[in-house]
Protein 1
Amino acid sequence: MLKQLFDDYVALHQSLGYKFRTQGTLLRSFVSFAESRGEHVVTITSVLEWAGQAPSPEQRRNRLLEVRRFARSLHAEDPRHEVPSGDIFGNACHKRRAPYIYSHNDIQRLISEARRLGPAGSIRPLTYATMFGLIAATGMRVSEAIALRLQDVTNDGLIIAQTKFKKSRMLPLHPTTRRALDNYLTARMKAHSSSDKLFISDKGTPPAYETVVTIFLKIMRSIGLRGKAGTPGPRIHDLRHTFAVRSLEDCAHDSEAVARHITALSTYMGHAHVTDTYWYLEATPELMAHLAADGERLYCGGTA
């Protein structure tokens, strides 16, 4: 019964235009947990026990709030569903998690380790090595990389047709990135697959978002950039932060050039507003050195 209620709840949100990916994954886990206990309605006891299994306070609270929204929706039609209080695990204010800025060596190790994935002789290692490299080189979203189709690869670059804000954009590629992508395309065109997606698994089907993230985290642990499961560390989304920061580091050292660069970067990354791009910027030694030099010029009567 809970499974059917869950399916209807997800379908409703997706019909309204929400992808409901992360929320759906959490709720699916809770429903499986509750049904394994023989329960057909949401109970506070099960919610707290399931949410309490999360490894951090923030994740426990996120689990609680997600199921609470689900329970409130169900309770409106059936009062047997219990709605837990939203502050059982405390009240947390939103804090920006400091992104991990990858070094060139980090990214090279990531790609090299992806090439060692099995099965031997399959397209799978090349798929993940190319996908991770493409995300690092373009700053595209993981969902955008997964959604790429063969016809989206053009002579002018990549067409990002399925974006977060429902707008398409063109991504020109650096020659080295283009060569890596062309090498993958050679293998991709020889692979047996009925899918038109650019990236496929060894079974010929496009990988799921959760699978891509799982493989990424596995590689991060294998190369020593993350600890055991449940501990914080570099995320795949941090590749997008890294792209934004490294792009700014390479920008010319004058305010007008930086302003033009930020506008172009915002468009390239698919942001609705240039202020969204500022969220991706993080202080690095090189950027701080630029700021210090500009500040000194201003102090001495010059212009930054």
Protein 2
Amino acid sequence: MGNTKSLTYLISKYAILELLYTLLVIVSFFLSLNFLINRGWIYPANHADRVSSKIGTAFQDPDWTPTEVPFYYDILYVENGEVLKNTIEKRFDDQVIKARKDGQVIGDEIIGSRVFKFYQVNQKELVLSYTISVIPTSEKMYRFCKNFEVVYLTTFFAVWLLGFAGMIIRSSGILKKEIRKISEDNDHIKNMELDYERSFSQYEEIDGVLQSLDILSRDLKETLSAQWDMQMRQKEMIEAVTHDIRTPITLIRGNIELLQEDYPDLSSERVSDIVNGMERLESYIEKLKHFSYLIENKKEEVRAEVLDYWIALLSSMCRANGVELSILQREKSLVQLDKEAIAVALQNLLTNAMEHSDKGSCISVSFCDSRNEFSILVRDEGSGFDRALLPVLTKKFISSKTSEVASKHGLGLSIVNKIVTANNGKLYLSNRVDAPRGAEVKMVFQKEMKA
């Protein structure tokens, strides 16, 4: 924008306005004070001092009486040693004594210094007390506010403070309004509302931030659009692939049924393994439509049927690879787990175990339940984990090809770790300490404690 200004301009502008306002208030109160004096509504500050000399002269008259003293004086009048009138406050006794001794005493007050003057004629004594300050000409007004200068200065400060506060509120309001534009644009971006109406500012610094947010939102929108297009293409491709895969699966299923009819002596275990494998393959294809193995299914308690489902999967895999399976413990649990996701995790763990184990070796699995957790332990008799890679084996694409033990784990443990974490659990990897060789993987799932 061509007419943008700097925030320094705004601050300088209001600083100058405040100085001008202060000068205006000072001049206005000075002129108003002169106006009150000229109209005869107040006496100037030296009025009482000038009149005091006239009172001293009049005091010489034998017919003088205290009633001739104006209302804005306090007096102590003594005749023949007797106090006939005393309007001076007790707190000024020391000044009165000093004035009777020295003739005159002037106080050290900052505003409205008090003066004490002493006059004596024959057996008569008079002490005048007054302040050097502006005095109202009305006795009622004087009784109401004796310290007129203090009231006047207080009023001056209050008026100045109101104007100063008004300018501060005005300038801070402008800054808040401009900063609110940044906050609102930021909220739009945070809420992914990228087609919001763009804001502009007449101040360079604020407008620079708004333009940066505008560029950020446009770039983010382009990136999200490109990502969305890519996801849609991936989805279409996966839908096409999964649709094509269903045809050979249907053919395999149909041929298995024909084989069972033509050859009734076929091993039921082998046929069952194939059927179970086909069912799991179909469930994986369904999940593939959603781009992830971690699609969340309905979680359920680990009942006997769930344990049978997992053990049947492990048994079929071990039979197909010539490895023995030993179920050491099979305890049910009230913990809520995703049955299919845990099956995927067990499949990956068993695949890794069999890849690193010899034919005829044994893989042991335990399903253990306790008060606060449910755990699944998988042990093999293979080469074990490379100790140097243990801290990073659950990371994606980590492999131990470069180590002396050529044991490749790849993506499997990364998938297992994500599945365990999604089911409120933790994955622990170690080498067996109860046997000369072999790996040990433990999935521990925490139970949700009821309040």
